[in-house]
Write a structure and sequence with these properties.
Blueprint (H helix, E strand, L loop, with lengths): L1 H21 L9 E3 L2 E2 L5 H15 L4 E5 L2 E5 L7 E2 L1 H11 L4 H13 L2 E3 L3 E2 L2 H15 L7 E5 L2 E5 L4 E4 L1 H13 L6 E2 L2 E4 L9 H10 L4 E5 L2 E5 L1 H7 E2 L9 E2 L1 H15 L7 E5 L2 E5 L4 E4 L1 H12 L6 E3 L2 E4 L5 H6 L4 E9 L4 H14 L2 E3 L4 E3 H5 L10 E6 L2 E6 L3 H15 L3 E3 L26 E3 L6 E7 L3 E8 L5 E6 L3 E4 L3 E5 L8 E5 L4 E11 L5 E11 L4 E5 L17 E3 L12
Parallel strand pairs: 1-6, 3-11, 13-20, 33-37
Antiparallel strand pairs: 1-2, 3-4, 5-7, 8-9, 10-12, 13-14, 15-16, 17-18, 19-21, 22-30, 23-29, 24-28, 25-26, 27-28, 29-30, 31-35, 32-35, 33-38, 34-37, 35-36
Amino acid sequence: MRLVVGACAVVTAALVVGLVFAGRSGKLAQGIRVSGVPVGGLTPARATARLQARAARLDSVPVVFVAGSNRFPIRPEELGIQPDWHGAVEAAASRGGGFVVARGYRRLSLRLHPASFTPRVKVYDAAVAYEIDQLASKIDHPHVEARLVRHGLDVEAIRGQTGRLLDRVAATRIVVTALAGFSRKPVELPVRVDRPKITVADLAHTQRLARRILSAPVTLTRAGGGVGLARRQLAKMLVLPPDGLGQILLGGRAANRYFARLDRALAKPARDASFAVDGANIRIVPSQTGVAIDVPRTAASVLAAAERRTNRVARIEETIVRPSRTTAQARAMGISGIVGSYETFFGGIANRIHNVELVAHLVDNKLIAPGATFSFNETTGARTAEKGFVAAPVIINGELQTALGGGVCQVSTTVFNAAYVAGLPITARTNHALYISHYPLGRDATVNYPDTDLEFVNDTPHWLLLRTFVTSSSLAVNLYGAPQHRRVETETSPLRFVSPAPIERTIDASLSPGERVIDQYGVPAQATSVTRKVYSPAGKLLYDTTWSSSYVSQPTIVRIGPAKKKPAHKKPPATTTTTTQPTETTPIATMH
């Protein structure tokens, strides 16, 4: 009975204690703090409002972060700091809540052992990352490794330096936490020591080897003699390993220049097989192998000799250089005689002759593979002053003018006729704007880079070689290859008038009334056509092609004296100063 009574007393006491400390369920327990702020006795709503108001007041007040002598003030608003005060208050309310008796004991525990809650924080991640980068850029001083440095003919070891680095992960956490709180005391940033990994002792072996390399000159030898490599030259070529632990090399611009000079002095260039011509005869000039300095092997031999204390002699290593075109390859090209040839004659000013010689040189020795197309413009490229072209007479828009490259069409016309008499298919050809009598009728060919071209195809089973021969008054173009013995027949229509020459009349006050002076006789618009039939040796018709040529007119230019003046009492008629007969022409820019 006594035990029952005692138990009841204990239970009653326990209930009384729970009831006494239970407090009101709608308020937070005493002893609770959120971010260091006591909120016990407040309703959750008032606690949340108080925390939010305090945070708002501090949103533009910076926290100073410290790293050594550096101080970095940062405001919460800069990083978009948004603490979840409502969530923190809810967590605090849950700690001191529950049924009456249980709540009382929980709150009694909080009085004896206060609890603090920290809110979750939302931030603008990009802003935080940027700020941490900015801090690191001012705080970080990475370590410097010990290294080897050449000074003249000696190699020294330079001690490394200890650095410091911002701990980015820990710094991010510390910065966000500090800005989300209410304290404005300076906060120390986490900085770690960054120690070098390579010491001067680690470099001792490489330093001794580098000093040995520069200790004396090296002699390079080959059959028939040798050449010395001085210490100073070796020093310029020495390439120390970046970390001081790797392999020493000879290289850089100094090494490249040295071995290039050595190659020029000792090497023998390879010579491709070529073709020598004498009129209709052609023969193969044999190819020759060459010898060049094998730079990588020679440099390795020099380095190996320099690493020795004695017998510092290196061998100049050589390699055979093969020609790009061997004698056998040239023979297989099948170039044995003339396939087509043509000659034109020229005169004119020195500039025109200069351009003829220049462009003839550009197309000379052109090799055309079987099935390939020869392009005049592609072979010569643009006719520019940088290439040496000068101003000379040229046809532009149907008029004879002076411009850069005049005379080029002498060469294109000669090449056209060489391909013409060879019976080769001609796929692109344009006549001049004006008729030129010293070319075969209807067989002129103008070019203008890059739009007006001359093209023909090598339809033979063997290569073609185009050669040009310029004298003081003529240009010959020979096409060498395997003679095809084709028969070429030509039918040329007579040059016919298409329309009369226009007349341009002007009034000249220096002439007597009715007097006429012709300054230039005009040329009517003309046209012709040429048909070429090409037959095989067996008589089979291979090609039947017609080229039509239309040449624009040139005006007759006439000066006329003014009309007679009529008596003063009569009104004089209106005077026309210029009369031009209209013509229709197509603008064409060509080179003559």
